[in-house]
Amino acid sequence: MKDLAYEVVKAVEEYNNNYIALYNINESIEDKIEKIAKEIYGASGVDYSRKALNDLKIINNLGFNNLPICMAKTQKSLSDDEKKIGRPKDFRVIVREFEFASGAGFIIPILGDIMRMPGLPSFPASELMDIDENGLITGLS
Asked: How far apart are CA 44 and CA 124, in angstroms?
């Protein structure tokens, strides 16, 4: 393990990285979101729900506006709409609301009508489970 750790540290120190951040951390929340939406997702712009606009005021009042952005969107598309397959064009991203993970250090725009519990099937197995008046459980596999 020491040899592996040594090689990892050596690789990190010797690697010549040309990384450039997509946005400046001091930009406004809206500007950061717009850059992600346009440059990564291919959107033409961003719209905000009334709740999202109120959340933005809270974020700014709390001084969290300099935190990085971690977008929450459908995994089925580079948009906020799972029916827009792949990397669509000429669409607007809708920010429904915000969460902020101040301890972890980032702002989470919630896009569109996404399900907040990833990994759940559209028809959960629990729908076929039951327990009768005698306590007999059925539908377990």
From this structure: 36
The pLDDT tens digits for 39-82 are: 999 999 999 999 999 999 999 999 998 999 999 988 888 888 88
* d(C-alpha 104, C-alpha 101), whole Å: 5
Rounded CA-CA distance 27/46 in Å is 16
Q: Retrieve residue 124's tokens.
A: 């959960």
d(CA 100, CA 109): 8
Q: Which of the residue ranges 72-81, 92-101, 110-119 has the most confident prediction, judged by mean pLDDT?
A: 92-101
pTM, entire model = 0.72
Closest CA to 98 of 67, 53, 40: 53
Residue position matching structure tokens 């690697």: 15
